[in-house]
Specification:
Belongs to the proteasome subunit S14 family. Keywords: Proteasome. The protein is built from 13 helices and 3 strands; from the N terminus they run ααααααααααβααββα. It has 261 residues and is mainly alpha-helical. The N and C termini lie far apart (97 Å).
């Protein structure tokens, strides 16, 4: 365990820097995970030293935070899956972790961003009712889910500034990206064009430059001088219905039916 202890202390120093040295943390975490596997602490079974388990749990928790700060969601998924053993099987044996509920809350928001609503509710059901109601790290994603179901997108937008931890903002931003695309699809179906200011307001953009980048990705035509956005994509043409030809064909069909009768 001496080598693990040295690496652990190195990880703590890198993580506590302002800002955290994410590259160094990732390198050290990779070495630590190998060490945890060799020591039988990554997936602990049987009689294991509780002090070693506390250290292993903290390593994995730091790994979860580093993953979010590095915008690596699959890595966060893996760390959270590994932490489940510590949070469930050893919940009564180990002292509480101050990072447990922040990480559980991050996992709940992750499920929302992936539109895994059933998994969200299943995960929520595993928590005590008082935790859901009173813990700010859990109530935040619970409120987000309710607002999403209500279509209260402005509340989701405002929730970014009410995030209980900085890491939560990453997932709220991801949610807003999904919401913007849904609103954009509705705008395309409902309008031929909109004033740039109105489009920015509907899509929760605070700057025109962000709106223009989004418009370019959607293939919208922007007229800066007129201050409008045209939702009809370039090269898109209205399909002309051949009315005269349809009428002629219908009359011919009707006459042929009369002759048959």
């Amino acid at each position: 365990m001496s080598q693990l202890k040295t690496l652990y202390e190195e990880l703590i120093r890198a993580f506590k820097q302002e800002p955290a040295d994410l590259k160094k943390c990732t390198l050290v975490l990779n070495k630590l995970k190998i060490g945890l596997i060799e020591a039988g602490l990554l997936l602990p079974q049987g009689d294991v030293n509780l002090g070693d388990l506390v250290v292993a749990r903290e390593i994995l928790e730091i790994g979860a935070y580093v993953s979010i700060r590095s915008r690596d969601v699959p890595s966060f998924d893996r760390y959270f899956s590994q932490l489940q053993t510590f949070y469930t099987d050893y919940s009564e044996s180990l002292p509480p972790s101050k990072r447990e509920y922040p990480i559980r809350g991050l996992n709940l928001i992750r499920l929302l961003t992936q539109n895994r609503i059933a998994d969200f509710h299943t995960t929520l059901e595993s928590l005590d009712a008082d935790v859901i109601a009173e813990n700010k790290y859990i109530s935040h994603p619970v409120n987000l889910e309710r607002w999403l179901m209500e279509g209260s997108y402005s509340k989701v937008w405002n929730a970014r500034e009410q995030a209980p931890a900085e890491e939560y903002k990453f997932f709220v931003d991801s949610l807003m990206g999904t919401i913007r695309n849904e609103i954009a699809s509705c705008e395309e179906a409902a309008y031929e064009s909109l004033p740039i200011r109105d489009a920015a307001s509907l899509l929760f953009f605070t700057t025109q430059s962000d709106l223009l980048i989004f418009a370019q990705k959607r293939g919208w035509q922007v007229d800066i001088s007129a201050g409008t956005i045209n939702f009809k994509r370039k090269g898109e043409e209205k399909m002309e219905i051949p009315k005269q030809r349809l009428i002629t064909a219908s009359l011919t069909y009707a006459r042929e039916l009369e002759q048959i009768v």
